[in-house]
Amino acid sequence: MALKFTQLHPFFVGEASEIDLRTADAAALEQIRRGMDQYGVLVFRNQSFTDDEQLAFAERFDGTLHAKTSTAVLEKNRFGNEALSDISNVGKDGELLAASDRRRMSSLANRLWHTDASFVDPAGRYSMLSARVVPPVHADTEFADMRTAYDELDDETKAVIEDLRVHHSIAYSREVLGFEFAPGERELLKGAVHPLVRKIPGIERRSLYLASHAQHIVDWPVPEARLLLRDLTEHATQPRFVYSHEWKVGDFVIWDNRTTMHRATPFDDKKYRRELRRTTTLDIDRLAVSA
Questions:
Q1: Whether 119 contacts 168, CB under 8 Å
Q2: What is the mean pLDDT of the chain?
Q3: N or C: which end of the chain has fewer CB within 10 A?
Q4: In a domain, 291, yes or no
Q5: d(CA 281, CA 279)
């Protein structure tokens, strides 16, 4: 049976009909890719992934996985694989992280609007987040539609930003919140330069490419550059461009980092446990992979 998608927001986001992604065949994977081109964010319910199964699905679906995460600079991944990002508030001992824990302090930057892996080249393409444990309070993830945000800019602004390039640094987004890197850590997070307006193969519409990692516009004075990036972010994250996802155990959400931004909303992470696993693919040509 062909997959069907129900649109959850006026501009983007689709919820898929019932499917077990662990056993999705090549035809289903291609339907999902077309759905990603259309909706930018896809929601799948009742997905019972193990860690290995999530890694395997991500590779079958989109190829090479991103493994140069910022948390790898701070400590080794507790799952033994840096391609499986630990989006949680628990440590290796299974206990809640202390308020002063460096990993927790770094992860607070996830509450800023951002784009996964924009600080590497090639950058991130699809991120896939699996909900394993969710708290009994709202701990939503918000997504912003960067294609509609671009479409609704005035022509003068579009002309100004058309060929601009931006340097993205994950160290910058952490330091904005006061996080301090130890000697040698920051040097491992060099950053990368990407266009401010993305022209994505196979997708006719253009998209703003913003993030809290966006440190400066290449060849622009710093004050003017930061003002422009701030103004564009405020425009792109107006409530009418934003979808808020309320997590349930078993939810699996895929989003296109080239056409969306996202952020975590705050909850009492010193009281309630939340465990999510994220895989992110790099924006390079996909090789043919058997289903």
A1: yes
A2: 94
A3: N
A4: no
A5: 7
Q: Which residue has the tokens 């330069």?
A: 193
pLDDT at 290: 43
Q: CATH number of the domain that 90 lies in?
A: 3.60.130.10
Within-domain flag for 276 = yes
The 10s digit of each residue's pLDDT in 237-276 is: 999 999 999 999 999 999 999 999 999 999 999 999 999 9
Tell how strand 41-44 and strand 14-16 pair up. parallel
Range of the domain at 14: 5-282
Beta-bridged to residue 167, according to DSSP, are: 193, 216
Task: Give 114's DSSP letter.
Answer: B
Enclosing H/E stretch for 30: helix 26-39
Backbone φ and ψ for 158, nearest 5 degrees, come out as -60, -40
> Which of 100, 117, 116 is CA-nearest to residue 108?
100
Mean pLDDT of 223-239: 98
What is each CA distance from 240 to 38, 100, 120, 148, 245, in whole angstroms?
Answer: 18, 35, 30, 10, 14
Q: What are phi and psi of 107, to 5 degrees?
A: -70, -15
Does a structural domain hold residue 289? no
Q: How many structural domains are present in the chain?
A: 1
Query: What are the phi and psi torsion angles at 159 (to 5°)?
Result: -65, -40
> For residue range 50-80, what is the model confidence (pLDDT) as tens digits?
999 999 999 999 999 998 776 666 677 888 8
**What's this model's pTM, rounded to 2 decimal places?**
0.95
The two tokens of residue 160 are: 């100004």
Query: Can you spell out the DSSP letters for 84-104?
Result: SEEEESB-TTSSBPPTT-HHH
User: SS3 of 261, please?
Assistant: strand
Tokens of 93: 């001992």
In a domain, 202, yes or no: yes
